[in-house]
Design brief:
- The complex is a heterodimer.
- By secondary structure, chain A is α+β, with helices and mostly antiparallel strands.
- Chain A folds into 2 domains: 4-234, 3-Layer(aba) Sandwich (Rossmann fold), CATH 3.40.50; 266-363, Nucleic acid-binding proteins (OB fold (Dihydrolipoamide Acetyltransferase, E2P), Beta Barrel), CATH 2.40.50.140.
- In chain A, 24% of the residues lie in helices and 32% in strands.
- In chain A, strand 18 (315-318) and strand 19 (322-329) form a beta hairpin.
- In chain A, helix 2 crosses helix 3, helix 2 runs parallel beside helix 4 (137-149) and helix 3 crosses helix 4 (137-149).
- Chain A is elongated and about 80 Å long.
- Chain A starts with a strand and ends in an 8-residue tail after the last strand.
- Chain B contains 13 helices and 2 strands.
- Helix content of chain B is 74%, strand content 1%.
- Chain B has one domain: MetI-like fold (Orthogonal Bundle).
- The chains are: A alpha+beta, B mainly alpha.
- At the A-B interface, strand 6 and helix 2 of A face helix 8 and helix 9 of B.
- The structure holds adenosine-5'-diphosphate (ADP) and magnesium ion.
- Residues 43-44, 160 of chain A line the site of magnesium ion (MG).
- Chain B: The chain crosses the membrane at residues 12-39, 59-85, 97-117, 148-171, 202-223, 251-274.
Chain lengths: 371, 283
């Protein structure tokens, strides 16, 4: 059992501004929770407070129901994998992994057993006699994880463990981390600024911004029902397209009109009609993902919109599996995700079809999703 | 012309080396085979100087004195410098003040420092003995007791030089990433274990540098005994360099003095090579 509960946690560094504001998060037993947000939003600070490396200014940190705010890091039964691995340069891989166990006066045989077992899991048995400087980034990273595993802790913390790896290795390691989580059946809290890592690894994801929780939910919920404009723009690749405008009520007709007037979308019959009726006359922002903008006419039953004006793409990226086509509308950068065999090209006018039921509308003032 | 230019450009340096390094070295090696009192012409004496050296009890006592000095001075120097550097490395209030304060004796003239310490250590009127008396302890003959004098000098020399090594260790300590200590905190290491198993091994090269530097500077011990004790009591603070100096400029035995110097240089080289061997095995 290992449940981590953060209750109204705040953090202000001595003499500095508050960097974490009243955050409450629950991490369930054996859950893989990812803290994600742009650089500087306080992810590391939050993780380090859980580890015991930073003091908690306000609030309670509970591990399995016990308040551990004042417990020394070593007494928390929590292991952490650091961003730059923090492997001791003068020790071999074996010594690095055995260090913490030796400090706990564990019998030599058991140390050997545990290190060997962890090395097997991570497939680094052949590296046990090497020093960190004689290994690649990916190997060091495994050793750093190994050092955490041997202690068999209740909770694993990871601070951007993949950020020093190249793209290919990062992809592989993501998959291995998932497997590791399944095999170890441990509670893991993982920090990253990369939303792809967050989406692929997390059972649940906490999106942070400037020390506030923006949303705390499963990957698909974040993707399909973002709580606000920030989450909508942060999660997903390519990022969501945005278009500022206002809701106009004209008798019974309800429309979204873009600020520049190029887009006027009829909302009657769409899933948004009811929620947006209350916004008549107010400024909102339309958000729509690349895959909901196509060059193929859609099923007529669905509520869709097709601007009269033809779109001229200014860049086309052919990925094989899909084609990303870029254009600018009223000064906003837009991207459409078309099929891989699409023949669209730059500088030709194309009709586009927008799946309005899949679009999102955000209150222009609060940036909250209108539901 | 093209071939000459490079030589022309380095000629000032070569001239300097020739006049101030190469010539004195060669000349002093030549001197070791001669007897010379500066005034009369040199006289070739073969290996007589070397023979005399091996039977010169005072020279070997001076070497032994110097080694006794080093045996106290070097460990004390390293320990003290490391401790002060550790303290200064934490964010102590006024750390830059202390850094400057520890460094000050390094740049003050050795003569001034020595005279100052002579007063501190004076048997009758020195502050240190007065403090001992104040807490009803017996006074110590810091500079007059043959069993104590050299160690008093070792402590004083440490006080003078420690600031330099504090700076070197501070640089070493600051090169240890904070994350190593955080990782060790998570593993449950105590402050001592962190120092023993992380700091020490990582700053080992700095320790070696400090050992070699303070060995070499310690071997050249001269000003302190020359001013404070003149080598006494009973020649127990007569350092090797001081003896070589006396042979040359008090007795004008230039040839013999050169022989002593040459032999002494070999001893220093020997010691440093051993130190290097030992420390290289450690890394
Ligand atoms: N030791 C510190 N002292 C003062 N401010 C800090 C310290 N560490 C981090 N901060 C500040 O706290 C904020 C959050 O930092 P951090 O948790 O490292 O962000 P992230 O890991 O999300 O990039 C930043 O504005 C950073 O400048
Ligand atoms: Mg960080």
């Amino acid at each position: 059992m290992a449940e981590v509960l953060l209750k109204h946690i705040s953090k202000a560094y001595a003499g500095g501004p508050t960097v974490i504001r009243d955050i409450s998060i629950d991490v369930k037993d054996r859950e893989f929770v990812v803290l994600v947000g742009p650089s500087g939003c306080g992810k590391s600070t939050l993780l380090r407070m859980i580890a015991g490396l930073e003091d908690i200014t306000n609030g309670d940190l509970l591990l399995d129901g016990q308040r551990i705010n004042d417990r020394a890091p070593k007494d928390r039964d929590i292991a952490m994998v650091f961003q730059n691995y923090a492997l001791y340069p003068h020790m071999t891989v074996y010594e690095n992994m055995a260090f913490g166990l030796k400090l706990r006066n564990m019998p030599k045989d058991e140390i050997r057993q545990r290190v060997t077992r962890a090395a097997q899991i991570l497939e680094i048995e052949s590296l046990l006699d090497r020093k960190p400087k004689d290994m690649s980034g990916g190997q060091r990273q495994r050793v750093a994880i190994g050092r955490a595993i041997v202690r068999n802790p209740k909770v694993f913390l990871f601070d951007e463990p993949l950020s020093n790896l190249d793209a290919k290795l990062r992809g592989q390691t993501r998959i291995e981390l998932q497997k590791l989580h399944r095999d170890l059946q441990a509670t893991m809290i993982y920090v990253t600024h990369d939303q792809v890592e967050a989406m692929t690894l997390g059972d649940r994801i906490v999106v942070l911004r400037n020390g506030d929780v923006m949303q705390h939910d499963t990957p698909l919920a974040l993707y399909n029902q973002p709580a606000n404009r920030f989450v909508a723009g942060f999660i997903g690749s390519p990022p969501m397209n945005f278009l500022p405008g206002r809701i106009v009520a004209d008798g019974t007709a309800l429309r979204f009109e873009s600020a520049g007037g190029a887009v006027s979308i009829r909302l009657n019959g769409s899933v948004h009609q009811q929620a947006l009726a209350a916004y008549a006359g107010r400024a909102v922002e339309l958000g729509i993902r690349a895959e909901h903008l196509t060059d193929q006419p859609m099923n007529r039953q669905r509520s869709y919109f097709s601007p009269e004006q033809l779109i001229v793409f200014d860049a086309v990226e052919r990925m094989g599996s899909e084609t990303l086509a870029y254009f600018i509308l009223e000064g906003q950068r837009f991207v459409a995700r078309l099929s891989g065999d699409s023949t669209v090209d730059t500088s030709v006018g194309v009709s586009t079809f927008w799946d309005i039921d899949k679009a999102h509308f955000f209150d222009a003032d609060t940036e909250q999703t209108i539901r | 012309m093209k071939k000459l230019l490079p030589y022309l450009l380095v000629s000032p340096y070569l001239l300097h080396v020739a006049v101030f390094v190469a010539f004195p070295v060669v000349f002093s090696v030549v001197l070791t085979f001669h007897s010379w009192n500066i005034i009369s012409p040199m006289q070739y004496v073969g290996l007589a100087n070397y023979e005399r050296l091996f039977n010169d009890r005072l020279f070997w006592q001076a070497i032994w004195n110097t080694l006794r000095f080093l045996m106290v001075h070097i460990p004390l120097q390293i320990l003290l410098a490391l401790m002060l550097a550790e303290l200064l490395n934490r964010t102590v209030r006024g750390a830059s003040f202390f850094r400057a304060a520890f460094f000050l004796p390094v740049i003050v003239s050795g003569v001034v420092v020595t005279i100052l310490w002579q007063q501190l250590l004076s048997f009758n009127s020195g502050i240190i003995n007065r403090m001992l008396t104040a807490i009803s302890l017996p006074r110590v003959a810091w500079l007059d007791d043959p069993a104590v004098a050299m160690y008093s000098i070792a402590v004083m020399a440490t006080w003078k030089n420690v600031g330099l090594y504090v700076i070197l260790f501070l640089v070493g300590l600051q090169s240890v990433p904070e994350q190593y200590y955080e990782a060790a905190d998570m593993e449950g290491a105590t402050s001592w274990q962190k120092f023993r198993f992380i700091t020490l091994p990582i700053i080992n090269p700095t320790i070696f540098t400090v050992v070699v530097l303070s060995t070499i500077s310690g071997f050249s011990l001269f000003i302190e005994p020359y001013i404070m004790t003149e080598g006494g009591p009973m020649n127990t603070t007569l350092s090797a360099v001081m003896y070589i100096y006396k042979q040359a400029f008090q007795y004008y035995h230039m040839g013999y003095s050169a022989t002593l110097g040459f032999c002494f240089a070999l001893i220093i080289l020997f010691v440093v090579v051993i130190q290097k061997r030992y420390v290289e095995q450690e890394v």
